[in-house]
Amino acid sequence: MNALIQQAKQEHYAIPQINVNGLLWIESILEAAEATRSPIIVGTTDKVVEFLGGYHFICTTIKNKIKTMNITIPVIVHLDHGLTVENCKKAVDAGYDSVMYDGSKLSIEENIKQTKAVVEYAHNNKVIVEGEVGAIGGNEDGIVGNVKYADLDDCIRLAQEAKLDTLAPALGSVHGKYQGEPDLGFSEMKAIQEAIDIPLVLHGASGISDEDLLTAIHLGHAKINFNTEINIAWSNQLRQTLNQDKSLFNPQQILKPSKAAMVETIKSIIYKCTSYNRV
Ligand SMILES: [Zn+2]
Fold it and tell me: CA within 20 to 30 Å of 32's CA: 24, 76, 137, 255, which one?
């Protein structure tokens, strides 16, 4: 799994992570990735895992879907913003391929200590680990924060001391909807990329311009997380379908157009990340 992200970094594209909010999301992500021959990361954020049926249920469901849909592109099942070391271990035990431990609200000492515990357990089970430094702003799925730029020394320490596979340095991106123009710290990004050789991860990419995404990719980002714009496409289409025919009650008739809207949005994300035709 690590080799996939390393390859993306070397060849200057990013593998999109798309977050799951139910069965239709899993199907849409896999369909879009297969059609465009893109490797893909299927994410579940820790705060919604219970809503999704628990670590084991959702991980097994994603893997079963990969089989029944005859998916041939590489898929990484990832835990996004793991809240505790215990939760990350549960995800590893449930069969996730990759976990993120979010210790960004802790002191750097404590962040390193907790992330290290996740890495030791995960690596023993051939699972890769993403860590975070600084604070990503905004509000999404109950993850709330004010933007705090990642400190270069903290990034180097967390990556090296915890033996991370990927690092998410917060550099001005925001979860959920942006208020005004996103302002990414490209000079800080360049310094981090030059100091650390592992692939970087960009959170809160919905709303960042295509040009800025490409700059981030060229500055070492090989995994980019998307959630908000897919959910906006889904909900806009759902509202439109229901408003067009007030007598509709057949679930498939109601849900199919919103699924198609998600597939199109995910394909557009894959084009932005230039991860198409890579497998
Ligand atoms: Zn995030």
Answer: 137
Cα R_g (the chain), whole angstroms: 18
Closest CA to 230 of 32, 5, 81: 32
Question: What pLDDT score does 183 carry?
Answer: 84
Half-sphere exposure of 207 (CA within 13 A, CB side): 20
Residue 250 CA, ligand 1 centroid: distance in Å:
35
So what's the pLDDT on residue 53? 98
Q: What residue spans define the domains of the chain?
A: 1-273
Asked if 165 is an active-site residue, the reply is no
Choose which CATH entry (1.10.540.10, 3.40.50.12780, 3.20.20.70, 3.90.370.10) describes domain 1-273: 3.20.20.70
272 token code pair: 């932005």
Number of alpha helices (DSSP H) and beta strands (DSSP E) in the chain: 10, 11
Residues of the chain with pLDDT under 70: 144
* List 80, 97, 141, 165, catalytic entry: 80
Ligand 1 centroid – CA 244 distance (Å): 35
Q: How many CB atoms lie within 10 A of CB 104?
A: 22
Whether pTM exceeds 0.90: yes
State residue 79's pLDDT score.
Answer: 98
